[in-house]
Design brief:
By secondary structure, this protein is of the alpha/beta class. The protein has 18 helices and 14 strands. It has a 5-stranded parallel beta sheet with strand order 3-2-1-4-5, with helices on both faces. It has a 5-stranded mixed beta sheet with strand order 8-14-13-10-11, with helices on one face. The protein has a two-stranded antiparallel ribbon with strand order 6-7.
Length: 400
Amino acid sequence: MTLFEELFWRGFVNQSTFRDPAIIDDQKFTFYFGVDPSADSMTVGNLAMAMMVRHFMNHGHKAILLVGGATGMIGDPDGKNEERNLKPPEEIAKNKAGITAEYRRIFADQDFTIVDNYDWFKDLKYLDFLREVGKHMSMTQLLDREFVQSRIGVGGKGISYAEFSYSLIQGYDFLHLFRTKGATLQLAGADQWGNSIAGVELIRKLEGKTAHVWTGPLIMNVSTGKKFGKSEDGAIWLNPQKTSIFDFYQFWLNTDDKGVEEYLKVYTLLSRTEIDNVMQEFLNHKPGRAAQKRLAYEVTKIVHGEKAANEAKTATENLFTKDTQAIMPTLEIEKNKHDITELLAMNGFTSSRSAALRVLEQGGIKLNRQKVITQAITLHDGDTLQVGKKQFIRIKMKPS
């Protein structure tokens, strides 16, 4: 299967500047793909585009993976209805380290270069930037952007010059990587199309050369129509300290029947034949959830490694046994009797006591597989709490 055929089959085709997209099989490109350090981990939304990147790598294209130390100091305003709070430099540094570590883990067997755009922006003088970049960026082009219109129009909350300039900064990234590393292609999610085109225009105007953009669509939950990658308690992270390996595995295991084939194509490296075989087994006996089980295992293996995937698989097969203890989130308590809503909220397993109460009233809290029906609860060492469909917590008593 050619790269174009693979991208089309897997659903990684959105917008492109190529007149003939099949050119990605006729010549090799040096491309770049970037993530801003808005957090110390990527989410499964970022992972979808990282998997698109992986296919370009597999077909021989040269990869530059960018960590946006400079762009992260401003924050992408696209999709935001109000001004972001600026992050302190020390938080950005921590976040950069987290993103870099995930790049190295996800693409462990690939050849790539990691760069940080702060390295070329830190010494760039303001007047030089205005003369070289600002002079060649059309205000009309920027003002036509949908998010700018929503922020400056009637009822909008306005936009600062800093956030308005974000496209210029990202555009300069492409220009710099074109000049220094020969990058002629940017890969991105659909929401980055406008920012990516800014770089194409700078390369055309300043270098008289052609550069290109390839974007993949944002992955949607087929059943809900909402952006894919969130659980009842928020985003699903690649960092096991933010989303435990057990919870990560459970998230994929609980994906809906309608979307599981699409998720297999996007989030795994299984071949067409392998996915067809998995789906046939699934369709023959849906209660067996063969597709979800394979999805959970394959994605966990890519993100956390084969050993962790095997542990999560075994723990799930032997749920509520000692096999789960190594990877199931642990909650240490000092006493046996608790208000379950207060306990869950105080320890971050729900966003608030009212949220915990809603889950309780809906029958979504279980203790050792038995539904909890009152707020007052008695816990013992080794008990297992289930909160919602996907979150499992092991109880551990603190030594007295």
